[in-house]
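Fold this sequence, please.
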Amino acid sequence: MHDIPTHDVDVLIVGAGPTGLTLAASLLLKGAAIALVDRQAEGANTSRAAAVNARTLEVLEPLDVSRRLIKEGIEAARFTIRDGAKVLLTIDFSGLSTRYPCTLLIPQSTTERLLLDRVRELGGDVIRAKVLTTIAQDADGATATFADGDTIRARYVVGADGMHSTVREQAGIGFSGGSYEHSFVLADARLTGDTPADEVKLFWAAEGLTVIAPLPDGSFRIVAPVDEAPDSPSARFVQDILDARGPGDLAVTDVVWGSRFRIHHRVADTYRAGRILLAGDAAHVHSPAGGQGMNLGIQDAIALAEALGAALNGDQHALDDYSATRRPIAEQVVALTDRLTKLATLPRALRPLRNGLLGVAGRIPAARRTLAGRLSGLVYR
């Protein structure tokens, strides 16, 4: 009978985006031995997520990361939905019961840099570029094999490796859901005109939806559903969107970065299969409406660190509790973002009616408070 090899680490984390970095820092603070690997070279990730909500800032506070994010981001106390110059609905975060009554606008690349700084301060780092090929698990742990032939033996393996997760596939966990027919254009552009300084503006025009949000470097994040979006949107393309859907007084001087993407709505059938666990986009993907994706993943990581800490001390039930607790929250977020996406992409003939009803809802304080609680993530405390 062959001996089972000893463990190299307590936890192997696959994927060094915001979720994996948060989990690594949390586990290092607990004294766990970890390995954090990623298939990409450092700095290769793009800046898709640009909003950190109040609940995420709360859970990152014990890691000593929140203050660093605040220092480099823009605190937006308001989120408005508009039809041209007319404000239909204002969501005010300033009255929320939290130390962080805002949405923090900050590029994902900056969030990742600050989280990586904290991981390194705690004695960890990312092993790059490391491509996972297989995972074999047994009663005592799991052995991960990589494309270069290296292996890592761990008590637990966490998949934080995104929507196309190799870890999830190796665990045999289903990923139920579907995709939307629309493609979306995303661009960081420099603008002139009446630009928002500390506010996210969402324009629901008859021609379609557009989101405009300020970023710390002076550019603006623009997101819009487009039937046939180009791979790299030009300044002229973005200008045409703003002219048709925006306030009518903005001029695009430059596109710093841009891309197109299609969005899915999927949730993993379970977040645990034996010694393998999932978090972040490996466990759930959904529309960017409401800016929830990265936030949900970071909150997964904090919860999973607590569960893994308990499991390493002998409480295996904590891992089942993690799956049972976090998966329903993902389903709620998918349902919310699905409703928002369907409202945003209604057939053109129905959009004026939608905007009229939204204006009525905007005059109801309870509706505004409910949306503020959902978008801030505070309802998931």
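The first strand starts at residue 9 and ends at 14. The chain has a mean pLDDT of 91.
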